[in-house]
Amino acid sequence: MRRYRRKYYDFFSHFYDWIINLHSKDRSLSLRHYLAKKTGARDGDTVLDLCTGTGSVATVMSEYVPKGMVVGADFSMGMLIKAREKARRKGLKNVFFVAADAASLPFRPDAFDVVTCSHAIYELTGQTRKFALEEIKRVLRRGAPFCMMEHEEPRQPVIRFLYHLRLRSMGREGRQIVKNEMQELKSIFSEATREITSTGKTKLICARK
Ligand SMILES: C[S@@+](CC[C@H](N)C(=O)[O-])C[C@H]1O[C@@H](n2cnc3c(N)ncnc32)[C@H](O)[C@@H]1O
Question: Considering its fold, how many domains does the chain have in total?
């Protein structure tokens, strides 16, 4: 199953940025900057962007830690190739992309000062999400922040219908993610807070190890 999902993302990587631009129209990456600022990352920090995709958050985060380092991890080689191209185009020297499964990270404990994850926690189904959250906690240093961004339930009726259809397609679990996300996070991290961004379309959840 995981192999098919990886292949799906490899294929999707060719259109991913184009579709995101079309959908969000956020060409200045303001939401990614908002996420980056919320982490409170300081120059010199070591940051992990989990399920980095084409590296949009990782490359933005690198601006906040020019003397530090950002690692973008994803299990899709297609996505990683696009992410590396993006970092090269921007001339970034402190961003590295590695192939890794969120449920089993190849990093030592307490390795990161910040972990981010954008639009991917909902993609992790079954035990994968639980293991991934445990892994995030393991690789974060004590007291360090984990910040994730996801779509908020849309207000526009047709879009809301499609949003719920997507959740339903993920089975009972899809619906449970949204209902129980704060409880799930609070059971693993401390100080979990949730806010809706000014667009009303995106939510940001931050917690600490
Ligand atoms: C919707 S994309 C989000 C990409 C990026 N974070 C962003 O905000 O544009 C979800 C990403 O999660 C990755 N992903 C899904 N399951 C994963 C897993 N088990 N381990 C690592 N990456 C995974 C996919 O390859 C894909 O790049």
Answer: 1
Task: Calculate how far, in angstroms, residue 94's C-alpha sits from the geometric centre of ligand 1.
Answer: 21
Helix count and strand count (H, E) for the chain: 8, 7
CATH of the domain at 40: 3.40.50.150
The residue whose CA is least distant from atom 26 of ligand 1 is 53
**Residues contacting ligand 1 via CB (< 6 Å):** 9, 51-53, 56-57, 74-76, 79, 101-103, 118-120, 123-124, 128
Claim: this prediction has a pTM higher than 0.70: yes
Domain hosting 152: range is: 2-208
For 143-166, write each residue's pLDDT tens digit: 999 999 998 888 888 888 888 887
Sequence letter at residue 47: V
Tell how far the Cα of 175 is from the centroid of ligand 1, in angstroms: 19
